[in-house]
Amino acid sequence: MSFQDLIDPKPKKVFLLANEAIARAALESDVKVAAFYPGSPTSEILDTMYLLSGKYDDIKMEVSINEKVALETVAGASMGGFRSLTSMKSVGLNVASDTFYTLGYTGVNAGCVLVVADDPHAHSSQSEQDGRYFAQTGHVPMLEPSTPEEAYQMIKYAFNLSEKFKILALVRTSTRVNHQYAPVNIGEVKRRPFIKNKWNDVKGKYFTLSDTARRLKSEAIEKLIKIEEDFNSLQFNKIIDGEGKVGVITSGVSFLYTLDALDNLNLKIPVLKLGTTYPIPKKLVSTFIKNLDKIIVIEELLPYLEQHIKIIAKDSDCGLEIFGKETGHLPYVGEYNVSIVIDVLSKIFEKNIKINYKEILKRSEELKKVIPKRFPVFCAGCPHRSTLWSLQQAVKGTNFVLNNDIGCYSMLQLEPYNLTDMMLCMGASQGISSGMQHVLNDKIISLVGDSTFFHAALPGLINAIHNQHDYTVFILDNSVTAMTGQQPNPGSDFGPNKVVEIDIESVVRGIGVQNILSINAYDLKNNVELIKQFLDKEGVKVIISHGPCALYNDRKKRASGVPIIPNKVSSEACKTIYACVRDFYCPAIELNMDTRQTEIQLDVCNGCMSCAKLCPVTAIKSVGSELK
Amino acid sequence: MKSYNILLTGVGGQGLMLLSQILGDACTSKDYPVVVGAQHGLAQRSGSISAHVRMGDVYSPLIPYGSADMIIAMEGMEALRYIEYLKEGGVIVMNSRIMHPPLETAPIVKNRQEKKEYITIDQIFQQLKKVTNKIISLDANLLALEAGNPRTENIVLLGAASTQKDFPLDSETLTNAIKRNVPEKTIEANLKALEIGRRQAEI
């Protein structure tokens, strides 16, 4: 898409990412408040709303400190009578779940939509969590799109649904839906003027305890019974007619894999595509299975649909055979694709496969043995690379435990670093360190980025100070939430609105940390000794390493016309000592196979100068210094 | 419409996502069905990335193994890394440039006395030729510089790809999509890159 298409109020057909389509649908639905904490694969919803809020000033848009506060912010706006949107990744809803579960009881007022995105394959998450169970256990309805077009339509429907039943509406996606682009027929943007309400005009009751809780729970369940009635005939649940007594029930992106697989095998069997997966439209499912002998349930992650359908089949007493994960026909782990679906269908229907996927994969693995892995790495110029170089030198030969957290620095667990002992979830570096320092003799080191520090590490750190624990905290402050696309966090000096920059050092000092060391990430040689000394101190000590995210900073430089000047290795001076690359692993530095000297790729290097500082014979200089 | 599947591969930071946008936008402008499965997620540069561009009557955002009509690889090794997607005899349009990742350099530096070597583009060709003989290899880095902007490697390769038999998008459609999707001040260099890539492939 071009951004012009997205902000243009006129209807048209545009090529959109599903996440962009979700934001456009929210704009057309007259959303007034949107709040998010970024998380893959939903971050582009935030990014797009950020851009839209710059154009449509009646959108109050916030990048929140965490998902819980984001959900509370949009729920508050809904209670106040205005439509609101939030989105988060699967594990983000864990953070927001306390609020989420109670909202399921209290309900909301104006349309309030929560997009939650699962990440089958754990591409960029710590687990393959299945978000569908949130809807069922939280008493809220759930829609599941397959395509960008459907995501767009479902968001619009979800706002109406939420408003009609005064209930939070969940739209559940997965990575291959969020990150799918396709043409979308977008509609007209009509915004109503934003004039604040009076509480007396919109007032509801949003508290729950004891008998109120029991009453609200039964009301929520009654709402869901009515919603299920609507879902039985909703356009998002569709039966594709076919021949024979064997059918497929599927949803989300698995529906698309199924269609491709059926085409490929030239099969025309009945398919039920579920667009609403809580409550499941039982009547529709019963109608579908009534005339069938066998059903194959195709869904990623846990056998959620499979188990629900087993219950419906039992109630209908139709003797249906159900194939899925529990029968061993489909995997529990990893994301699905066309080949996996073809494989299972070809077995059940005894069809020959045109392409032997297993053979292809086997041959490819063989062919690929010659190339090295290319894992995600710290970008050229990343301040973390410099901080971590210093840390590696400072701890050499000592006994330590490294408790990591969620952010770019999570990559420390990968080759070539292999430097992480623990990494669970946002903020866990603190609490786990607290537990370990009670029982281990080693030095306990925790790493946390600025965004994660604010998001969930702060309570753990306060707890550690209050209880007089003994471990070291590295706060890697690069001024943005880098890994998800450099969104602002409370420590940033920018945001969709005017912001106050929260100073991490003042916060840490304010909660009573005595030993605070503030270092410049790029002063990497001098930092080694400073870190060493600090690690020997008693109590909770905090090292704040400063250096802006290279991607963010380079973009800022480009926008303001500041040149990015790379470095160069002098072939006269280089003595192939490799201090610039050993333990430093910068993707801009390669070797020249003829001279065995290092070389710097000019279009990758951003001139951070760290490698130059590491070179004992000063063979690395800025290209700029030669130009002078 | 007959389907045409292109797998884009490369290294983060080379403009692969923009290339997938241009292709998708071009199809949309012609009312061709298109779906792109992009790999977003981690924002970091220099990792291995891919995007599945599927034109015509297909449904899912992922190309089945052994079914891509074409791989456009923005980097030499990345042409091989996703080879399971190429159909038998499919086309590979690739950059001859190799970007050696830190994981390849690290063991060479660590065991310097062994004088280990980097992988070469010829070794990669050798492997690729076991799958197809339709390989178009360009020094896109050099050609992008010739176009006036080193960041137009992606469009140089698109130009070369567009000369291939069955490639479903014509020159005018691509030109318009480029104009709509690249920053305004880089339009001229990008169009020049398209032309250079096309000419190079026809030689």
Would you give an account of this structure?
The complex is a heterodimer of chains A (628) and B (203). By secondary structure, chain A is an alpha/beta fold. Chain A has 4 domains: 3-232, Thiamin diphosphate (ThDP)-binding fold, Pyr/PP domains (Rossmann fold, 3-Layer(aba) Sandwich); 238-364, Rossmann fold (3-Layer(aba) Sandwich); 383-556, Thiamin diphosphate (ThDP)-binding fold, Pyr/PP domains (Rossmann fold); 563-627, Alpha-Beta Plaits (2-Layer Sandwich). Chain A contains 23 helices and 23 strands. In chain A, the strands form 6 sheets. In chain A, strands 3-2-4-5-7-6-12 form a 7-stranded mixed sheet, with helices on both faces. Chain A has a 5-stranded mixed sheet with strand order 9-11-10-13-14, sandwiched between helices. The mean pLDDT of chain A is 96. With 203 residues, chain B is α/β, with parallel strands linked by helices. Chain B has a single domain, classed as Pyruvate-ferredoxin Oxidoreductase, domain 3, CATH 3.40.920.10. Chain B is 40% helix and 20% strand. Chain B has a 6-stranded mixed sheet with strand order 2-3-1-4-5-6. In chain B, α2 links the parallel β4 and β5 (86-95). At the A-B interface, β1, α8, β8, α11 and α14 of A face α1, β2, α2, α3 and α4 of B. β8 of chain A pairs antiparallel with β2 of chain B, so a sheet runs across the interface.
